[in-house]
Amino acid sequence: MNKIQIIPDKFKICSGSTLKLIAVVTMLIDHIAAHLMTEKTVTFAVGGITLSLYVIMRRIGRVAFPLFVFLLTEGFVHTHNRLKYGGSLLVCAIVSEFPWDLIHSGQLIYKGQNVFFTLLLGFLGMCAAEMWGDRHLIPLLALVGLAVLSVVAEADYGLNGYVFIILMYALRENELFRPFTAFLFGRCWYVMAAFIPIMLYNGKRGFIRGPVLKYAFYAFYPVHLFILYLFEYRIISF
């Protein structure tokens, strides 16, 4: 695969840890708005245009998913143990389902599945593409089957999220066309903003090293959902 690069290496200043931090912060901003605010929360006018803090925060949050997907594809390509990597995604998906259900329904029953299931399905799709890439029918059937599962299971971001992961993997060496995958989502211009730090990625791990920080990154998702659930349902208050 020929690599198409837009930004010269000397300008690539973002490590994997930087991308993780941006992803986590933008996700938190998005979820605070989604679960603790309404469109009328803190509105103000700028130049005759009325803006809502809620809308601004949700649009900032569009950056998070593409960053998590990029980190997933990087992890897939560079991991030395695919089974362990997939197992970690599965465990996180199962653990995260409890706060995910609570925050969306107030109880431990909710029809949709959290984003780690989407990432897991994308991971399995990448495994199928790599393992059986020279056998056209087998990977195609596996990819279609996983796509159907993403719809039936109502995984977060749905079919578009799954397809986005596969396209990000297929275009992992192509900085020119990769941003256009954002058109799979509404408000695509805000999603495209995620590709700025992605194009500045320098391939280095950064400051998040060792098992403690590694698993703290994974744990942030279910933990922050549970905390937001406590506030949303007035179990604790400000």
3D structure, described in words:
It is globular, with a radius of gyration of 18 Å. It has ten helices and two strands, in the order αββααααααααα. It is 62% helix and 3% strand. The longest helix is centred in the middle third of the chain and has 24 residues, at 82-105. The chain is mainly alpha-helical and 238 residues long.
Q: What order do the helices and strands follow?
A: HEEHHHHHHHHH
Helix content: 55-70%
Shape: globular
Rounded radius of gyration (Å)? 18 Å
Major β-sheet, in short? 2 strands, antiparallel
Structural class: mainly alpha
Q: What is the tally of beta strands?
A: 2
Q: What topology, given as strand order, has the largest sheet?
A: 1-2
Euclidean distance between termini CA atoms: 53 Å
Overall mean confidence score, pLDDT: 92
Q: Give the uncertain stretches in residue-range form.
A: none
> In DSSP terms, counting alpha (H) and pi (I) runs of 4 or more, how many helices?
10
Which band does the percent of strand residues land in?
Answer: under 5%
